[in-house]
């Protein structure tokens, strides 16, 4: 939260609806969020081949684009605010977690300080320390074979570029995709049109990034020459856009296979610690927000002084409501990372809204659990012939 990489992030309707229900709109308005109105898909010849206009009214909220740092700051401000229900959150910095005891509800910090609480929520990201303690064995994020260049361009840096208006219009919040076989570019405006974000996905073996390979890091400073080489067959205006970027960052994309458990004792994994996924559907942050809503829903049912057993039972209900859905969306995100065209063809076969209905048609953990409990019961009746 103290420092976040300069990139854009989208909250899908399933998460935007939750955020709104928490009364956070006043905290988010200063972020100058942009409601995304469409996907535009271009082939590698620069031809517009498909435009998908969004109508999210049926989902009860919009797909909204933020700057990551702005969103983090807004959520931190809300969490520490005295204007919302409940006591303000206390945030301790410089407190690296070394280990935890899931059953006792304790964490050990660097320096050997031990902190105890009623429950531990392991929201410590893709590099989670808590994950191994909960699962019982090491479960590291695995390389997916894809890396992402990220760039954020100030609006003023785009002056003079000869780019079709259906590609670049800072006043019109549209997500533009340029799709090749094994690489693609996703881009669009943010911060009320003040910036333009670009993510360029490439196969790992095409990166030509020796510094990253030598250090073993997932993150490196990207090389503009390597980026231009990787996208040499894309439209010239795409390469012109790249060259206006003040800096280029490079991430090796990793995700998790679905974990066998998220809960042990009084401890639960959420977010990337539980279900890290590829960014191909923009669902990573939205799934973490769904986790938070589920925790809110089931913890609210606990008595004032819950026993360890009651806490464990509540966390298991959260897991029951979340694991199947989050695991499916992990799989959908992998599916969306498949090649966008056949080999040697620029005819786009990728459908970016293939799983949109399932992903966005969501009304909270208890609603999901009730519907799926009913579906399971009906299925059992049919199986038994009753």
Automatic annotation (TrEMBL):
The keyword Oxidoreductase applies. One of its GO terms (molecular function) is monooxygenase activity. InterPro entries: FAD-bd, FAD-dep_Monooxygenase_BioMet, FAD/NAD-bd_sf. Belongs to the paxM FAD-dependent monooxygenase family. Keywords: FAD, Flavoprotein, Monooxygenase, Oxidoreductase. Residues 261-322 form the FAD-binding domain. The keyword Flavoprotein applies. This is FAD-binding domain-containing protein. It holds the Pfam family FAD_binding_3.
């Amino acid at each position: 939260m103290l420092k976040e990489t300069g990139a854009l992030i989208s909250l899908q309707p399933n998460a935007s609806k939750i955020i709104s229900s928490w009364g956070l709109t006043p905290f988010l308005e200063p972020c100058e969020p942009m409601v995304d109105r469409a996907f535009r898909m271009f082939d590698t010849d620069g031809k517009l081949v498909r435009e998908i206009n969004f109508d999210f009214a049926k989902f009860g909220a919009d797909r909204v684009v933020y700057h990551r740092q702005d969103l983090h700051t807004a959520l931190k401000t809300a969490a520490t605010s005295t204007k919302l229900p409940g006591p303000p959150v206390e945030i301790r910095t410089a407190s690296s977690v070394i280990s935890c005891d899931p059953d006792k509800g304790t964490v050990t910090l660097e320096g050997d300080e031990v902190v105890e609480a009623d429950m531990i929520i392991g929201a410590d990201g893709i590099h989670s320390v808590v994950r191994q303690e909960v699962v019982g064995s090491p479960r590291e994020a695995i390389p997916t074979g894809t890396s992402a260049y990220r760039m954020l361009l100030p609006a003023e840096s785009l002056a003079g570029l000869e780019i079709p208006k259906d590609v670049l219009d800072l006043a019109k919040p549209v997500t533009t995709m340029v799709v090749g076989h094994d690489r693609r570019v996703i881009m669009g405006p943010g911060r009320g049109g003040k910036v333009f974000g670009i993510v360029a996905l490439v196969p790992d073996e095409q990166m030509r990034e020796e510094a990253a390979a030598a250090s073993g890091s997932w993150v490196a400073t990207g090389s503009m020459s390597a980026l231009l080489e990787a996208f040499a067959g894309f439209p010239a205006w795409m390469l012109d856009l790249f060259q206006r970027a003040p800096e280029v960052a490079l991430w090796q994309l990793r995700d998790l296979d679905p974990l066998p458990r998220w809960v042990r004792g009084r401890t639960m994994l959420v977010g990337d610690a539980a279900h890290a996924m590829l960014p191909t559907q923009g669902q990573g942050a939205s799934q973490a927000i769904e986790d938070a809503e589920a925790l809110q829903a089931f913890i609210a049912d606990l008595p004032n002084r819950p026993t360890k057993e009651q806490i464990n039972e509540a966390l298991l209900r959260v897991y029951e409501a979340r694991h199947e859905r989050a695991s499916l969306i992990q799989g959908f995100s992998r599916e969306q990372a498949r090649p966008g065209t056949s080999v040697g063809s620029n005819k786009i076969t990728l459908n970016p809204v293939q799983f949109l209905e399932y992903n966005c048609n969501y009304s909270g953990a208890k609603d999901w659990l009730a519907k799926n409990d009913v579906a399971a019961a009906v299925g059992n009746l049919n199986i038994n012939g009753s």
